Amino acid sequence: MLDVDALLADPGVRIVVCCGSGGVGKTTTAAALAVRAAEEHGRRTVVLTIDPARRLAQSLGLTELDNTPRPVEGLTGDGDLHAMMLDMKRTFDEVVLSHTAPERAKEIFANPFYQAMSSTFSGTQEYMAMEKLSQLRATDRWDLIVVDTPPSRSALDFLDAPARLGRFLDGRMLRLLMVPARAGGRSMFNLVTASFGVFSKAVQKILGAQLLTDLSGFVSALDSTFGGFRERADRTYRVLQDPQTAFLVVAAPEPDAVREAAYFAERLGAEHMPLAGLVLNRVHRSELPDLSAADSAEAAEKLADEHTLTAQALQVHALLMRQVARESEVSTGFTDEFPQVPIAYVPAQPTDVHDLTGLRAIGAALAAREE
């Protein structure tokens, strides 16, 4: 069994990353872990969500979340908790401002290519999540940082995208486009055409002349920060491989979700990321586990005429026990493939979790040491 309290109380664990497919309660799990770390273990905790949904803010009693950690009120214990939601463009702006002179930063912000890349470019969100995580860690303000990653398999872009974007920003093509700025301001197209001829025409045809001009201007303005993007991404990537980080894969006892969980576990192992365990949410249990579905259904049939309510209760129990059996079979598929990965089981809740009381209940369930 996964010992969640030991994980949250361990001063050597500074980062907990919750990953998993969509719709399995990942955001709620991240919030519940953060609340428990603050209340039960006295840790200075911040929870960062990359999911733009408002569930985290609502459950923590906040009207909204943004790129700045906001204090969560109403906690007990000696710890404290802040929550925030990643604003990738604002984070990108912060990176540029911190590594570039104000006038050069202004030039970058006005560039159409930068405006597009900082808002919609593939991999930017995940790269900026890495940047924000790095910023939070660098302040040394927090004992524990809990990260709620985007839903679905793309959550592992949290690992992949920074390296891809770093290679792009640090790559040969962009360095080639920087040549005009280093050549005394001659037109890029004149210089490239003179040097490469057919290559220039092909690039212009693929990208479009205006985009290529914007891109060249962006790279020229960004010259002072070159090398920093990949270096920072690599540094944060190494942090995620360090024992101070713990990955929790979150799933529900459903075939698709458990298959995704297995994919995550396999990838994390291949990338040498410290997988602490699996959180299996919305698990059904019965107070009468020894009364099988078959026996319950048979008894319901015998009592149907004379004891209607009892028969109906037995029928409901039979349905529940069948569901318990299906869920057990599904989860066994994961445990058979990854026997070394400990699991925490969270019972299905009668209502949606929407406040601190509900988060505390989830946290207590996560910390329970019995299946």
Automatic annotation (TrEMBL):
Chain ranges of the ArsA/GET3 Anion-transporting ATPase-like domain: 14-285
Domain of life, per lineage: Bacteria
MF (Gene Ontology): ATP binding; ATP hydrolysis activity
A Pfam entry, by short name: ArsA_ATPase
Database matches in InterPro entries: ArsA/GET3_ATPase-like, ATPase_ArsA/GET3, P-loop_NTPase
Name of protein: Anion transporter
